[in-house]
Amino acid sequence: MRLTRTTLALLTAATTVTTAHAQGSKTITYLTPQLETQGYTKTILDLSRAYSQQHKNVSVKYQNVAQTGLAQQLQLFAASNNLPALFAIDQPSLLAQLQQKGQVVDLEATFKKLGLLDKLNPAAVTLQKKLGGGKLVALPLEMNIEGFWYNKKILADNGIREPRTWDELTAAAAKLQQKGVQPFAASGDQKWPLTRLIGGYVARKYGADAMDRVRAGTLKVTDPGFVEAVTAVADLGKKGYFGQGVSTIDYDTAMNTFLQGKAAMFYMGSWALGNFNDAKQNKIGANNIGFFNFPTVKGGKGTANDWSVNTGLVASVSSKQNDAALQDWMKYVFGNFGNKAFADQGLITGFKVTQQPKNVPALTAMVQKKISGVKNPYLWFEAYFSPKATTIATDNVQPLVTGDLSPQEYLQQLQAALK
Amino acid sequence: MERTLRDWRAILIFVGPALLLYTLVLLVPIIWSLGYTVYEGSPIAGFKFVGLTNYQRLFDDPTFLKALWFGTKYALFVSAGQVILGLLLALLYAFYLKRSSVLVRTLVFLPVVLPTVAVAQMFAKLFAIAPQYGLVNSFLHGVGLDQYVQAFLGSGASAFWVIGTMDIWKAMGFYAILLYTGLVDIPEETIEAARLDGAQGWTLARFVVLPLLAPITVASLIFSLNGTLKVFDSIVALTNGGPGTATTPLTLYMYKTSFTYGEYGYGSTLALTLAVQCLIVTLLIFWRARRAESR
To answer: How far apart are CA B106 and CA A289, in angstroms?
Structure first.
């Protein structure tokens, strides 16, 4: 009890809420697990600095939170009606609650008013609205496609073709392992990179609508296809394909393992293009990176034309902070966001790119083409889960891949949380 | 004095402000939290009266039982380590190092003032396996014990020992000082007299020093157990309860239940069980100490 209170008090005290001071100055707080210097957060902060130079009374305060603690922190802020002006949010069910309580801004209306609506990519808006119960309550700051990125040289050196089926993938992994190459880089500390594999397998087994059917109640996660999927992923872990101590590997370590050529394959979303296109981080060379869709599985309904697509780590705007000053800032920042993110880092966002830079990195161009060609998108494994089911799915994946939890138990606990 | 205590106005002036503050910041939230145990929901989703459902749920919640067991096991191991090592250190300061113990005392006390997050980071690096071996794995590799090289924080069983070791290392200096002050208080004559009677080494410690030190040892044990039963920060910083829920004590489970799952009612019920557990442990120690005293 003491803990609960102390935490609440501390967090409330620690929040520097966006405050409009007597002199008319405004501090806009932006809460995100992304690093200041990476991804779209860099773009937002760069644009904000430019804005602040013209508007001395407006400043943006960047606040970082670990992704594993993001949902918790947002719940605490929301409980005291004290959400930061702009905040990243990674759980659609939590966002839905915030929307019901009227704590987040309806961005379609606001963007329409600000004349920004045509800046958004309609496909991203559709995807986002699907998650938000028909409303646009979060900004699609990314537009991602997910799959396996691979080190072309390592695969070629070992005589391995781009795997098309799950059997080919595991055969490739076995061969690499035998040659002393770590087959996959994965962050088990973040947990979701591992559950993504379960989601991918399930989508291949039952088809792209697998998780929609779970939501509708026509499929249960304890059904045989899920057992097969979870067993397949657990096997990758048990065979050591993720390297040593996978559940202690954080996101950056996994990324570096791949970008320093110490692992052959890396399941990741295209938001990582920023890292891939950065020569300082990428030691294997951008031309050396290939990309393939989640492999098909035996007897599965899903095909290689179904892609895992999402708007990534979205961000919402607090309705309490939504005043004229914030809207003016939004108009500037999100009016220029799509072009700048693309020009500076080659990021593909849910915003239109109206000025094509001359030198588009090859990887970015490839991803852009893939995204625009997607016919059958599906969302990630936990997209429709409650915060509790999400936590159980992600927490338990760690003992699953180390063999400390059986696939059946994993799914039983998940099914219980989904009720 | 007695007249002052009979004057209710004086009492009101002396005790009133403190009592008011105590009521506001301590009693009200406790009662509030107790009230939550018969409700379910969260400030975002709203609350609903559920009666005793939350209490029933405790009994068929495997995660609760697992967390309760982990917390108890952890508290017993860490408290024993903290107090026993603290006691040994105190004896070392008082009887062996004597006046020159200042430097050692300071060094052993140093971890107490370090922030837990920093200590946890250090231990995470010490026991790391990837991207590079940490000190421990490097050492094992260096002396040819490669079969013991492992992800210490990647499995529940070994993570338990790492967290336990860290918390013992971090707090033993505190208990050493606490017990040392008790040792210093034992009159020199008593020790001399025992020595003249032929008591030495273990006999001296067992029959003279330890019984005289008992009140402070009991206090240390209560302090320590109440701290370790409510462990939170070191686990969050080191493993965040993982892998899976293998190192999740009640506090962390309660925190997740309330603030991630949005189940404030069940979270409060878990908090209550923790409070009851602390109370039972404290009463048990008191009762044992009383009985030992009266013998």
So the answer is: 54
